[in-house]
Amino acid sequence: ALEYLMLLRLDGKLSAKDQLYLKYSMSWSALETLVIQGFYAKAEELIYSLDYDDINESNITAQVKKAAEKFELNSKNIDVSTLLGVQHLFLYPFYVQSYAVSVAPALEIYFMESAKSGAGLDAYLKLIDRNDEDMTLVESIKDSGITSPFKKNYLRDLANKIYNSILGKNYYEDNSVQNDPNAA
Q1: 14 beta partners
Q2: 100 vs 70: CA distance, rounded Å
Q3: At what angle do helices 57-70 and 38-48 cross, to 10 degrees?
Q4: 140-166 pLDDT, tens per residue?
């Protein structure tokens, strides 16, 4: 979130072209995190749901392909080896989901600051200055005025904000994409 907030403080320090490049880079990185880490988390969830006797390369690959299809990735080139380089899957089960879950509130802080100077920074400072260590992530971000990334249609709304910040229009409404009422 702090990196994203810095993007809004670069006037006069970087050229408009460099600022736009950083904005595109930030947007791409965030979208990549949401998709790829979400894919890893889904694959991990599916693999860990296998019965012990069903754990083999073929079944794991089937689960990885199923996760890839969920995220509309090209499953022809994805198999169990896709996950071998992701150490977190082996060392810290269910950790990869934290990347997607944390980039979403960071982006929301950025968009809050974009809409009203100081609003995102205030939310960020409130979030990092929590005194109650027993609060869950969802409680902490809600207490800071940030929407839960688990809210229905949250990712769709976030994708629209990213698309709008780059192209000045909403992806879902402006491109007549059929909205899935069950989408996350």
Answers
A1: 11
A2: 16
A3: 140
A4: 888 899 988 888 888 888 888 888 887
